Amino acid sequence: xxxxxxxxxxxxxxxxxxxxxxxxxxxxxxxxxxxxxxxxxxxxxxxxxxxxxxxxxxxxxxxxxxxxxxxxxxxxxxxxxxxxxxxxxxxxxxxxxxxxxxxxxxxxxxxxxxxxxxxxxxxxxxxxxxxxxxxxxxxxxxxxxxxxxxxxxxxxxxxxxxxxxxxxxxxxxxxxxxxxxxxxxxxxxxxxxxxxxxxxxxxxxxxxxxxxxxxxxxxxxxxxxxxxxxxxxxxxxxxxxxxxxxxxxxxxxxxxxxxxxxxxxxxxxxxxxxxxxxxxxxxxxxxxxxxxxxxxxxxxxxxxxxxxxxxxxxxxxxxxxxxxxxxxxxxxxxxxxxxxxxxxxxxxxxxxxxxxxxxxxxxxxxxxxxxxxxxxxxxxxxxxxxxxxxxxxxxxxxxxxxxxxxxxxxxxxxxxxxxxxxxxxxxxxxxxxxxxxxxxxxxxxxxxxxxxxxxxxxxxxxxxxxxxxxxxxxxxxxxxxxxxxxxxxxxxxxxxxxxxxxxxxxxxxxxxxxxx
Length: 516
What we know:
CATH topology of the largest domain: Growth Hormone, Chain: A
CATH class of the largest domain: Mainly Alpha
Helix content: over 70%
Number of helices: 21
Order of helices and strands: HHHHHHHHHHHHHHHHHHHHH
CATH architecture of the largest domain: Up-down Bundle
Largest sheet: none
CATH superfamily of the largest domain: MFS general substrate transporter like domains
Number of domains: 2
């Protein structure tokens, strides 16, 4: 492989599109699996119970989601070091193989504990796929084409939460729960073969030593913090519950010690020195607020359709599809614009659209027109397509070649933590509102249980669903406020043409030549 400086064409050529295809395949597997399991939790409660009349507790089966999320968060900090040490291609193939093997083992699980354990293994592979994919795409595209290539990578990131419930619901209804995992086998096999052929070889950088102290502080700290936050809904929002505050406190202490340590080694596990880059810092702050509001709010809509309107899981997934259609319309446009103009002129426009769409959802009632809700979701989708990937592009565009892997790691950790925090906060707000209502909870249960519905009576059911809808609307006011707050750092993003430093490294660190 030549170490000469790479000249990047302006147009997206076939070689780069092939590489983008590999990355998208991996992203689809990783992101879909975060959401596709959500719809299977009631099924897990039944099939893994020794007594069909006494299903497992929801908090127990929810660990199939929590274990995967914690595993993702734990492995992400290692990805930057491992990409430098072993090379992105070799590590990417390993991550795909690990994720696929974990998926097959999940399908073979005989009890809930086995399934939770195999989800951890699956998450170890899945956690590396997204930051590695961003690194590979950034190096392949060059500074002039990053916006368009990142828009391609953004498709599975935005559609995953939408297609996951649809796919999961369809597979469970028409096949069995095993297939929500087995479907990854053909996709993973294809990704392995495709990646081994298409991805260019890159030279590892074995000189960097693993920051063992940082690893022992950061990964457990992040896992403990997210465990505590994700336990909030289980503990009914009680922050004084030992499971919550002890975990969060221990996590914060370990993360604080890591921050103190991170500036000492030459090559820390997580390079906090990158925060000296103003654009990266602003992009990460914007990403944190945006992801908290978006992923937290995204949880509410399908739940509203099922719990207040009585829709099936599959129908609820289909009803939120317009949000994905809106994102698909604006994402390629935003990607092309990001290559030609500053993101500070793009991201605020996208956030304003989300503010408008989410304001509509704050008006939810028990009988709100589906046309109105779909319209609000579509406008939100338009805004999301113009927001997420331009933020990521802004963060990575001014980094040097050797900083890209570590910058991608920072972004992915930010998104993961923000998503977990957002989901926990929205769940707690919604749960507390529903429990504070006399009839909301029983009325939602009555939609699935005729005995409960008969006991409440027609008027009681109607009044309870009205109160439940108010709880969803009130929770959306919180999400709307977060999006509004996101505009503050977004308005500080670069409003002038950014100078790329991707090719500023010396000859030995020049971007790899793309092998045609």
